[in-house]
Amino acid sequence: MQLRFKDPQFAFQFLRVLGSTATRQCDVGEAWQTAERIVDGDFESWAREWSRTAARLEATADACLAAGHRVSASDTYLRATNYYRAAEFYLHGNSGDPRILEFSSKSARCFEAALANGDQPHEFVAIPYEGTTLPGVFYPAANERRRTLIVNTGFDGTVDGLLPWAKAATRRGWHCLTFEGPGQGRVIRRQGLPFRPDWERVIASVIDHLVARPIVDSERIALLGASFGGYLAPRAAAFEHRIAACVANGGVMSFLGARIPKGVTREQFVHAILHQPEQVNAAMREAATRSPEARWGQENGMYTFGASTPAEWLKKALDYDLTDVAAQIRCPMLVVDVEKENGFSGEARKLFDALTCPKTWCYFSDEEGAGDHCQTGSPSLGQQRIFDWLEETLRPGLPC
User: Fold this and answer.
1) What is the tens place of the pLDDT at every residue in 318-336?
2) What sign for the dihedral angle of Cα 192, 195, 200, 203?
3) Among 281, 298, 317, which residue terminates a domain?
């Protein structure tokens, strides 16, 4: 959807902000007024205006809380969280930019305050993981043994952005655990841990944490991966067989697949990455001067993968490929695709075709307002179809 901005990357990110209105993480009017002040395609303008709006709302929320208006404070903190997240989004070209930690810390502070003063049951958790911990939030549906959904974000997501999935889960009687892993959120920003391709090691720690809770039905744990999580979740499911059902929204067979230039074969592109890195760097840097989307992709890729050049990032990305492991997935899989997939075009079908486990295809179209990446403009429709599948797949009483 081309909302406000002509640049497709800015238009999509604005849609991402607006799409969170359903869970009170945005007000359309204040978001639109913020967007009106932003210069199309200008990263600095984007950061300045979203942080300006976020700071105003944070101050308002603080005043509401001081006056004893907890509901107003919670709602306002929640919107400030989202706007601070948006403000930080395009800053990764300089990993030393102090605003990365400033805005992400303020976003986290507002999110914690929003939940603390709201009515959503929750528990902030530190998940033990290889000598450190991963931040997460456990949302119980009730104080009894229930099905549980783990929600795995992707290339640029944060734990606060997973709140809509948690709300959708608990309303349906599911417990929910959201978390940030290596390459994501505070784990890359504060702990400096980049993405890793063997994501089953991450999910094993998450499930170890979950099954220690008596209220979690360890036989009915589902995993949902959003965006790049559409690679991470199936990768985990191929090796971690405590996962009873898995959703790839949308499916990703290969991280590199959607980044191969037109007119170039995969073999040619891989050869260039491995043997002609300077040529690859020059071509990608030139593309970044013409396209905010290309620039952001490279900058965020290098930042979250721990690479110093575009070619080094792509070399690391070669390991994120399910070709040799997709057939090892045993649990039922839901593979989601959208009509105008802008991040991993064509990858969902490749993954679906490679699966040998019980599998279901789920497609969203432009006509129904859900044709953008991860149903960004229509989250309620996305949740309806995905949770309907989850509930039918892991119905109580059915063997897993």
Assistant:
1) 999 999 999 999 999 999 9
2) positive
3) 317
Place of tokens 């744990």: 221
Tell me, yes or no, whether 268 and 239 share the same domain: no
In this predicted structure, the answer to whether residue 2 has a pLDDT above a threshold of 90 is: no
Provide the pairing of β-strand 123-129 with 146-152: unpaired
What pTM did the predictor assign? 0.96
Instruction: Name the CA radius of gyration of the chain, rounded.
Output: 20
Task: Give yes or no: residues 331 and 359 share one domain.
Answer: yes
C-beta pairs of 208-212 under 8 Å, 24+ apart in sequence: 208/128, 209/125, 209/127, 209/128, 209/136, 209/177, 210/148, 210/150, 210/177, 211/242
How far is C-alpha 4 from the chain's CA centre?
Answer: 23
Q: Are residues 181 and 128 in the same domain?
A: yes
**Which phi and psi (to 5°) does residue 368 adopt?**
-90, 5
Q: How confident is the model at residue 397 (pLDDT cuts 50, 70, 90)?
A: low
pLDDT band at residue 398 using 50, 70 and 90 as cut-offs: low
Find the domain containing 73 and state its range: 8-116
- Give the end of a domain, one of 89, 116, 143: 116
Q: What is the pLDDT of residues 152-194, one digit of tens each?
A: 999 999 999 999 999 999 999 999 999 999 999 999 999 999 9
Rounded CA-CA distance 400/396 in Å is 10
CA dist., res. 148 & res. 210, Å (int): 9
pLDDT category of residue 261 using cuts at 50, 70 and 90: confident
Same domain for 187 and 243, yes or no, is: yes
Say if residue 63 is in the same domain as residue 35: yes
Same domain membership, residue 269 and residue 246 = no
